[in-house]
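anyone seen this seq b4? input:
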Amino acid sequence: MSTAVVIEQCGLGIAIARFIDYKLALNRGYRTEAAALRLLERALGGEACVDLRTITPAMVEAFLTSRPRHRPRSYNHLLGVSRRFFDWAVLQRLIERNPAANLPLRRGHAHRPYLFEVEEIRRLLVLARALPDRPKAPHRGLVYETMFALLYSLGLRVGELCRLQRSDVDLQHSILTIRQSKFGKSRLVPFGPRLADRIERYMEQRFGDPPGPDAPLFSFTARGCVSTNAVTQTFHTLWPRLALVIPPGVSAPRLHDLRHSFAVGTLLRWYREGIDPNTRLLHLSTFLGHVSPTSTAVYLTITDQLLREADTRFRSHSLPRIGIGALP
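predicted toks r here
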């Protein structure tokens, strides 16, 4: 005997408020998504839409197409937020079916990140160190040089780097503490002796006397840490001066590409050192602050160098075992 599912009557505005509260209770940074849902609420009637069950796929599609979202990524983000809200509403038995489930995504050109070579990063650091001071930005070159070095060497997110405090740096054990990052997660990030020397020199030159434990590690004034926008803008000012040769199909460099470069460079180094990457992907995922290796796979862009190393690994391990001679 089947049991009928009871669908609760609920207004759209009330449901959205409950969904946002649910996300915030999970310690999720949900500001952008909440704003998108408020757009959906206003477009579809808000509290006037007494019964959430009256919302149809045509109504959701009309809302999406009415928004000035010309870039596929922006449109797809709005669609994704709407889908997740309606999925939650189905689980809460507010509606029977997700009205956004079958709406198509917009397809755009896949972004292929620019992967920086070590020599290119060295040149970037030289340019950063030469940045002149400003009245409200003393030690500007030293600050940005060190920040770019950490972004590339440790694969940090720029927000994680900007929020670092003096107490997050343990020079004795060569460990950074990353607090309350994406999804509210924290983690420990070890670093090597050369990076330890760089950080120690930076602190001596930047602060002189040791700052308080709550002082921002990267700051220009007493007002607070360097903003992520400032770091991004400075990067976009500097990279064109590197005269980079951007391969076909690769987008112009972004600051986040330093994180991509770290991930691919780590994988390439494992191949060259004879380490099986399959046994280390969980380590890399943890280091980057991902919840699973599936998230890390997005950063592992396949390059010619990686293909050559993988081919060399295959030839040296697989072919002798099956009795095949060296291929030409």
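Residues 257-321 form one domain. The beta strands are 169-170, 175-178, 187-190, 219-221, 224-225. kinda curious what u guys think
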